[in-house]
Amino acid sequence: MKRINRFIFFAFIVMFLFSCNEERDDHNKGKTPPPTPSGPTAEQPIVPRKELRGVWMATVWGLDWPMEKYDQVSQKELYLKYLDLFKDNNINAVFFQVRGMADAYYNSQYEPWSKSITGKAGVDPGYDILRFLIDEAHKRNIAFHAWINPYRISTRTGSDTSFPKLDSKIPANLVKDYNKIRIYNPALPAAQDRIVNIVKELITKYNVDGVHMDDYFYPYLSSGEGMNDQNEYATYGRTFNTIEEFRRDNVNKVVKNLHDMIKNTNPNLVFSIGPGGNIENNMNLMFADVAKWSKEGWVDVIIPQLYFHTGSSIYNFDKGLARWSNMITKSKLVIGYGIYKFGDSKQGSAYMNSSELTKQMRLADENPKVMGGLLYSAKYLFSNPVNIMSAIKQRYKEPVVMPYLLVENPTLPNAPKNLKIMNDILHWDAVSGCYYAVYLSTGSKRMAKLVATTKDNNVKLSRLGTYFVTAVNEKNNAESKISDLIKYGN
Q1: Structure letter (DSSP) for residue 244
Q2: 443 pLDDT band (50/70/90 cuts)?
Q3: The dihedral sign for the CA sequence 74, 64, 59, 331
Q4: 225-231: long-range contacts at Cβ-Cβ below 8 A with a sequence spacing of 24 or more?
Q5: Does the pLDDT at position 450 exceed 60?
Q6: Beta-carbon neighbour count of residue 370 at 10 Å?
Q7: Please, are residues 450 and 470 in contact by the beta-carbon 8 Å criterion?
Q8: Measured between alpha carbons, how far is residue 38 from residues 418, 419, 421, 466, 490 in Å?
């Protein structure tokens, strides 16, 4: 009896559901089914690799700029010529030397106007030169990194000649002289503090995108010359077992204190250092413990100057790239290329053909840690020895988005929403504090193509296909996840 009751119950349920479906079918008779959404698609493309593409522009002795052009008009023309060349070749950063010899490219309370600007140290050039340099770079979406030399004050040919007169702004008791170089004494706490204060003045006055230091820490000395710092070691280094440990700690203090000051002043500002490519020389001659800086997260970006050719020599590009890649931990890794060597017969046969630069860039591209490259130096892009521009143009033919370069984990902006196309123009909702990267999808799981970066929340389309957009933080280049995809055309 129970079985019969169960059967009647299930039969009733089936008849009820069938009648409901019939009712729906009757209700929808003669109606067109709703359209399939034509906006987002199921594709999930891969965003192209982001990359720093920079150039060192040296001003000490007027090397790259202003090249002994001491009037405002000529200086501006030369600088804009550089920037236009960078822009035409998808170079997105300039590392401009604003302090090469304890001098300044702005009105500083600590050091005099640079001699390279007017031909005479301490002379005001008559315009806000650093503001001009930064603004013109930013107009072209080129990042401006202020490059400083931490210790060097002046140089001479040898001990039989005199150093230039010390500027009255620089305290004589903080200075130390060697046969060929005069520096801020790295062992003195007051000198260490002064370097930090100089950089703080710079980044407080000007909206630079980064602060960069080169490879000159403790000085390279002449043969047979000593560091002559026993008195400093006796005074300040009693807790260290060796004088070498003391020297490294002096440099560490400057690096750490610079990091702390920069992050407290502007946490989005990139702090980078470009050490020499020879790891042993850094550690034992200049007392620069780069591995520690990276491990502690004191430096956002390390840019080793891998000025060696590829091949089988003791110091070659291949081995150097592998060693630096293994050594750098928390910091981002960018490679420094010595383009100045090309066309110089003294540098060896490898540098007699631009294919050597292509090899170096290809090896760097194959290393997943590498986030870009920096070329030394700017003037060689103009002189173009052995047609190195052919290699650069080929490598940089496609535009890229600047990567996020800070040690700290990024907070990503929201992805753009509500994509729509009207009259061949792609629109999306604005995301506060961001610019945008617009991509053309080339198919599911395939690398997309960057077609534009823009500060506007719209872009005119010229090619049929499937598009998506990301928002990129204006202050630190953190990029959002991709938007929904939208098709343009059939």
Answers
A1: H
A2: confident
A3: positive
A4: 225/178, 225/179, 228/176, 228/178, 229/176, 229/187
A5: yes
A6: 22
A7: no
A8: 13, 11, 11, 11, 10
Please give the order of strands across the beta sheet that includes 152-155: 152-155, 181-184, 175-177
Instruction: Give start and end residues of each alpha helix (H) in 206-352.
Output: 230-236, 243-265, 279-284, 290-296, 317-327
* pLDDT tens string 139-152: 999 999 999 999 99
Per-residue pLDDT at 312:
80
What pLDDT shows up at residue 1?
44
Which amino acid appears at position 64 of this protein? D
Report the pLDDT value the prediction gives residue 18, as an integer from 0 to 100: 40
Structure tokens at 271: 């702090």
**pLDDT at residue 19 tops 90:** no
Distance CA 299, CA 273 (A): 7
- What percentage of residues in the chain have a pLDDT greater than 70? 91
- For 82-105, b/e burial (b = at least 16 CB within 10 A) is bbeebeebbbbbbbbbbbbbbbbb
Token pair belonging to 188: 């003195």
- Nearest one of 49, 39, 45, 42 to 440, comparing CA atoms: 45
First to last CA, the chain: 64
pLDDT at 43: 56
Phi, psi of 45 (to 5 degrees): -75, 170
Structure tokens at 172: 């004589």
Q: How many CB atoms lie within 10 A of CB 387?
A: 13
Tokens representing residue 116 in the block: 């390279």
Task: Supply the DSSP symbol for 477.
Answer: -
CA separation, residue 351 to residues 64, 336, 457 (Å): 21, 16, 46
Q: What residue type is assigned to position 473 of the chain?
A: N
- SS3 at position 99: strand
Give dist(CA 268, CA 209) in Å, integer. Answer: 8
Is residue 421 classed exposed, middle or buried when 0-12, 13-18 and 19+ CB atoms within 10 A define those classes?
A: middle
3-state secondary structure of 258: helix
Would you state the structure tokens that stand for residue 269, as one six-digit string? 């500002």
Residue 4 above 90 pLDDT?
A: no
* Token reading at 15: 């008849």
Tokens 């002043």 appear where? 265
DSSP conformational letter for 220? P
Q: Which two tokens stand for residue 489?
A: 């055309």
